[in-house]
Design a protein that fits this description.
430 residues, alpha/beta, 11 strands, 11% strand, globular, disordered N terminus, disordered C terminus
Length: 430
Amino acid sequence: MAKPILSNKPSSCSRLWIAAAATVLIFFPLLTFTDPWLRFSSIFNPKTDAVCRRGLVGRGQESKDPTFYDEPESEYSIDKAMIDWDRKRSDWLKLHPTFASSDNRVLVVTGSQSSSCTNPLGDHFLLRFFKNKVDYCRIHGYEIFYNNGFLHPKMRSYWAKIPIIRAAMVAHPQVEWLFWVDSDAIFTDMDFKIPFERYKDHNLVVHGWPDMIFEKKSWVAANAGVFLIRNCQWSMDFLDVWAGMGPKSPNFQNWGKILRSTLKDKLFPESDDQSALIYIILKGKKKWRDMIYVENRYALHGYWIGIVGRFEDIAERYVEMEKGVAGLRRRHAEAVSVSYAAERERYAEEGGGRRRRPFITHFTGCQPCSGEHNPAYEGDSCTVGMERALNFADNQVLRNYGFVHPDLGNSSLVTPLPFDYRGGGVDQFI
């Protein structure tokens, strides 16, 4: 029987296999350079395969796996309690891991009424207040949500914030903190970074004074117009309790009587959000008190009356500081302003923070939209104060763009900063 003839030439199948292998060897290294996510280790890594099977997705993409959004009992409304929120939020983040890159993800929440302002200058001021918040969020990498609709038919005026925050928690499971800022509050220190490490064991941060809460029992002992609240089950439950003292509650009228009898300096009989908050801190369950941080080491809420007349003096202190630290006068991109802010913060911390610009200046009682300000504020003091605060804050932004408002009372006047702006006669307006 004849033996088969052995040939050194590859068969057609062998030639095809060799060509395919060569193609892989040529193109695979190119792919690993052009696509940083494609690596041998990832292709042959069983963990990667497990991740794919779980349906994890990139930022901005939705997972095909079910989440709490698919559960009919999970609602945005304040009328229905959210159950097991910590687990639901945790499961969502596991499916969307690109959103869980930072412990202090922040969403600034604010808003105003849906109708036009009756004060002729009201809409203009609200626009500028919003611009101020957008500037601060851009500089610090925060998200922002502006709402101008009532999310509950009975929760209006100062109570409207609670349904908004509740809905924002559900809509933004990726954020760790929600930062409520009233429409009439202005960021007047654009450098300031919130000390979140101070609040690691707390879920709600309000500006106030413990002695005024527990000893004087005053309704102005804390402010409910600016606060930080953690996105967690405790906060969901707290909002339910807080809202239960508001106009959606059948006990609303009775709560007004209780609050007025408890807080002796409360001037009006109706239950309001601020009095209710102070009452919870003062008389509420330990589970609420223990998780609320009353902050007064910086101006989380700075009452405008004592601030607006000092802006030039405050700015001059920063000028003196910058004269001693020449590097802070260097022009730079806005994107790297955080490092310059950190250097200024070290200076501001000297003297227990007394040199620092007020973080937030809050125009409580000014009612910029209606113009019906507190009668105790004479003439145009509110309008003048808001103009000065907005320009003071805007100068901190504009300097990164090479301009300045030389007159804090005139927002329309803007002048360029010279290369060495110390020679331009605008030192006091920084």
